[in-house]
Design goal:
The protein has two domains: about 40 residues, no CATH class; about 110 residues, Winged helix-like DNA-binding domain superfamily/Winged helix DNA-binding domain (Arc Repressor Mutant, subunit A), CATH 1.10.10.10. A two-stranded antiparallel ribbon has the order 1-2. The protein is elongated, with a radius of gyration of 22 Å. It has about 170 residues and is mainly alpha-helical. It contains nine helices and two strands; from the N terminus they run αααααααββαα. α6 crosses α7.
Length: about 170
């Protein structure tokens, strides 16, 4: 459980009741499906795909990297062969997509070594993606607030569109 005193008052944080969240997920997806695991993806990544300039395959690569990112202090390090198999791509295609994500500043590759300098898989730092999503968030929040205000205004009693105004727009 998160200690509420550690969360800054300005943070937009929703504390989850894990038991309730687990039951809701199981009702939606099924208990056995949820037992296989899950990952948390911000909706802004999906809704902001075009703004981030992500192709569908690049988005899929990011989702697979995020699926391996369980702890903020431990960046994911799936093998390209694993990503290629899951995405039904060739390893070279995965490399190309990761290189494009790196060029866009969304991912940083960090080589990992085992033993006497033998490189294993790369680790993938997603902090660039996090920074870009944080920069987009205010624009999406503002658009959501404007849309809600329009709905509230339209629902107000007594609001009538003048016939002459409706004819001008129609």
């Amino acid at each position: 459980m998160v200690d509420k005193t550690e969360i800054p008052k300005t943070a937009n944080v929703v504390l989850l009741d894990t038991a309730t969240a687990k039951r809701a997920s199981e009702r939606k997806w099924g208990k056995r499906v949820m037992e296989r695991g899950f990952c948390i993806i911000p909706s802004l990544l999906l809704r902001g795909q075009r703004r981030l300039g992500l192709s569908p395959t690049q988005l899929a690569v990011l989702v697979h990297l995020a699926d391996q990112w369980w702890d903020a202090n431990r960046i994911p390090f799936p093998a390209k062969a694993t990503l290629a198999e899951r995405l039904n791509l060739k390893q070279r295609q995965v490399q190309r997509h990761i290189a494009e994500l790196e060029k866009a500043g969304l991912v940083t590759r960090k080589p990992r070594y085992k033993g006497k300098g033998n490189q294993t898989s790369n680790a993938y730092d997603l902090s660039g993606l996090v920074v870009k999503l944080q920069a987009l968030e205010p624009e999406f929040r503002k658009a959501d607030q404007e849309a809600k205000k329009k709905l509230r205004d339209v629902a107000r009693p007594g609001l009538r569109v003048r016939t002459s105004d409706a004819q001008k727009t129609g």
